[in-house]
Each structure stands twice: as structure tokens, then as C-alpha cells.
Design brief:
Elements (H helix, E strand, L loop, with lengths): L1 E5 L9 H5 L5 E4 L12 H13 L3 E6 L5 H5 L5 H17 L3 E5 L10 E5 L5 E5 L1 H11 L11 H13 L2 H12 L11 H10 L5 H22 L2 E5 L17 H10 L5 E6 H5 L6 H8 L3 E6 L1 E4 L5 E4 L8 H17 L8 E4 L19 H19 L1
Parallel strand pairs: 1-2, 1-12, 2-3, 3-4, 4-7, 7-8, 8-9, 9-12
Antiparallel strand pairs: 5-6, 6-11, 10-11
The chain binds D-mannose.
Length: 389
């Protein structure tokens, strides 16, 4: 397995020189400055790649080449957007960057309600609280019909929180729920979010699935021709949010995706934290079942609670049997090598880390701390090495 590290580009407070000291050899990044739907120019890709290589790394994975919201919505003339996506793939392939992560979550990427959840040891983690999410959905957003989607006990707790919440608390909750949209991406206020949700009116899981299948049919053949691998990231958390369908959440969903457009270029990003937040997912079993399609892995752990809340646990703690997942990935690499495939290696990155020690106060993206992720990487490295012996 190739050890990689997500770097948000020159604007990232964590430098490539610091990342060198973690021992990771691959960089996972994107041209975050380019608006969704626009072509990534070859020169800009080559320039970023050269900077990464000068620092002693390879650019292993693009995360993400974002899918424009209109493609997810199936709205308006889409041909130019598909053509732009294919052109970006061509430019990435020309520069030799071949693994491309993307997601198909409507509107919101990863979603949490608390970015500073204190653990008993003093570290801080990201957390999703069912009652805060319910308070946002029902009492702040006032989404019609939302109340029926939350358990009565969760609603009681949500009402208690709301009654005592200040305007600043509510603002913070909105900003936290929006925090999954990194950097340059759009953020919404309540009216803006309502307008966006209206655009999804009438788009259920089947309609969204049809839009994903169409996207795959439009881009996967080009990817295959170019020798690049698309790998869809699962929904985080793996359940519908704010009435929006989510369709990359379960084993059935992954099976639908790989079958919708059979091709070696139609692959998966296996994110143990995203999938692991769903009580319906047996994560090691999914790793074994879909290993042939896994092109990239995000290794991170979660601790679930009975009401649907969860927080990000230590990489080797939490509910996901990480050792079993790493074992499945190593077994897959072994099969690929036995088949003589040059693309046998699976890049992984320690996904999210706690805020530990000197991480506090550094302006990093939520979850993307230096020491917290380094701890995760070091632990995962140990597991992989021990298993491979
Ligand atoms: C969160 C990330 C996601 C991921 C995108 C991929 O930390 O794993 O934001 O990058 O969903 O498109």
C-alpha cells in the first residue's frame, strides 16, 4: 500500500516539507482554485505536479475532480459539463496523474455538527450529533415533513437544545454543517440552502442513481481509454440528509455503481469512516467483496451511538475493524501482483485526525491536522507492515 497524505495545495498551512517528515510518499490533492465545471488546464496541472515532485513526492491521487451540481441534478444542458470533465481527465492523464476521486453527494459533502468534540484525553475530534442535526433540519431550516424523519426522543432533545441556544450557537451549527464544503466551494445561508433544496424537489434516490449512471456512461469510457481510474467516494454519513437522497452508502449501492458501467476505470474510494458510520455496513466484509474495484482507500474510524450520533475515533479504535480492512487490501494487492498487473498498489491515506498537541491553533481544514493524522499514519503503517510479514 502506498502511504499518501492529503495536501490542500499552496494555501494549506501544512507544508510539503512538514509532510516529508511523516514518511508518506504520495500526495493527494486537487486544483481547488478552479471552479466546478471548468476544465483543469494542462499547464496548471503540470505546474502543481512539478511542485509536488520538487518536494520529493509523487502526485498519487486527485481528490477531487468535482462533479458539477447540475450533473447531480440532471438539470439543463449537460453535454458541455461532461465534455469539460473529459477534457480535465485528458489533461490529468497527459501529466501522468491517474487516480481520480470524486463524490456524488447532493449539495453537502461530509457533514458534522461539532468540529471540536473533546475526548477524555483532551484531544478534539469531529462529531455528528443526531439531536443537533434534527434541530437544524426541523427547527432552523423548517424543512416540511422533516420531523417525521427523526425519532421522538431525538426531537425532544433537539427542542431542549434549541430553546437554550443563542443566535451565535445557531450560527455556529449552520457553519459547522456547511464546513464539509472545503475552501473555494459554495457555502449557503438558510435561505440559500432552502433554494438549493428546492432544486432537488422530485429527485429521489432512483432519479439520482440515473444521473450517476449517466455521468458514468459519459466519462468512464474516456477514462478507460486514457488509462485513468475514477473512484467514487462514499456518502458521509451514509444516509439521506435534509431530505436529499444519498446513493453511495451501502453494499447494494456500491454493487449498483460497479455494475452500472462495468470497466476497470469505474472504481471505488473505500472510505472506512464514511461507510463505518452506517450501522447497516459491515466494513471489512465490504472491503473483501469490492476489493477488485478499490483504487484508493481512506482509513479512519468512527464510534457510533444508538441514536445515530457518532464521532471520529482513533484510527485503530472505534467500531471498524481496521486490521481486517487492511488485511483485505493487502490480499487484493497480492492478487493483482500475481496477475502481473502494473497497477497493483493501492494508495491509502490516514483520513482525518484528531487535534493533538501542537495541532491546536493551526488553521487547518477540519480533520486535516498534522500530528493527528501523523499518529493515524504511523499506526496504520505498523498494521500493514505486521500483516505483510
Ligand atoms: C472529507 C473527504 C471528502 C472527500 C470528497 C471526495 O474529509 O474525504 O470531502 O474528499 O467527498 O469527493
Amino acid at each position: 500500500m502506498e502511504e499518501t497524505w492529503r495536501w490542500f495545495g499552496p494555501a494549506d498551512d501544512i507544508t510539503l516539507a512538514e509532510i516529508r517528515q511523516t514518511g508518506a510518499t504520495g500526495i493527494v490533492t486537487a486544483l481547488h482554485e478552479i471552479p466546478y465545471g471548468e476544465v483543469w488546464p494542462l499547464e496548471a496541472i503540470a505546474e502543481r505536479k512539478a511542485a509536488i515532485e520538487r518536494a520529493g513526492f509523487t502526485w498519487s491521487v486527485v481528490e477531487s475532480l468535482p462533479v458539477h451540481e447540475r450533473i447531480k441534478l440532471g438539470e439543463g444542458p449537460l453535454e458541455p459539463l461532461f465534455a469539460a470533465y473529459r477534457d480535465s481527465l485528458r489533461n490529468l492523464a497527459a501529466a501522468g496523474v491517474r487516480t481520480i476521486c470524486y463524490n456524488f453527494m447532493p449539495l453537502l459533502d461530509w457533514t458534522r455538527t461539532n468540529l471540536d468534540y473533546r475526548l477524555p484525553n483532551g484531544a478534539s475530534a469531529l462529531r455528528f450529533d443526531a439531536h443537533l442535526y434534527a434541530a437544524f433540519d426541523v427547527l432552523m431550516l423548517e424543512r416540511p415533513g422533516a420531523e417525521a424523519e427523526h425519532a421522538p426522543a431525538t426531537m425532544d432533545e433537539a427542542r431542549r437544545w434549541f430553546a437554550g441556544a443563542s443566535e451565535a450557537d445557531k450560527e455556529r451549527l449552520l457553519a459547522t454543517i456547511m464546513a464539509g464544503l472545503p475552501g473555494a466551494f459554495e457555502r449557503y445561508d438558510i435561505p440559500g440552502l432552502k433554494r438549493m433544496l428546492d432544486r432537488y424537489e422530485g429527485i429521489d434516490a432512483d432519479a439520482l442513481r440515473a444521473n450517476l449512471a449517466r455521468f458514468l456512461r459519459e466519462v468512464v469510457p474516456t477514462a478507460e481509454e486514457l488509462g485513468v481510474w475514477m473512484c467514487v467516494h462514499p456518502d458521509d454519513p451514509p444516509r439521506p440528509l435534509l431530505g436529499l437522497p444519498r446513493i453511495v452508502s451501502s453494499a447494494e449501492d456500491l454493487a449498483f455503481i460497479v455494475e452500472a458501467c462495468p470497466s476497470p476505470a469505474n472504481g471505488l474510494t473505500f472510505c472506512t469512516g464514511s461507510l463505518g458510520a452506517g450501522a447497516h455496513n459491515d466494513v471489512p466484509a465490504m472491503a473483501r467483496r469490492f476489493s477488485g474495484h478499490i483504487r484508493f482507500a481512506h482509513l479512519r474510524n468512527v464510534k457510533k451511538e444508538p441514536d445515530g450520533s457518532f464521532y471520529e475515533a482513533d484510527h485503530l479504535g472505534g467500531d471498524v475493524d481496521m486490521v481486517a480492512v487492511v488485511e483485505a487490501l493487502l490480499a487484493e494487492e497480492k492478487r493483482r501482483r500475481a496477475d502481473g498487473r502494473p497497477d497493483w498498489i493501492i494508495p491509502f491515506r490516514p483520513d482525518h485526525g484528531h487535534v493533538l498537541l501542537q495541532d491546536a491553533g493551526r488553521p487547518t481544514h477540519p480533520g486535516y491536522t498534522l500530528i493527528g493524522r501523523l499518529k493515524g499514519l504511523a499506526e496504520l503503517r505498523g498494521v500493514a507492515l505486521a500483516l505483510s510479514r
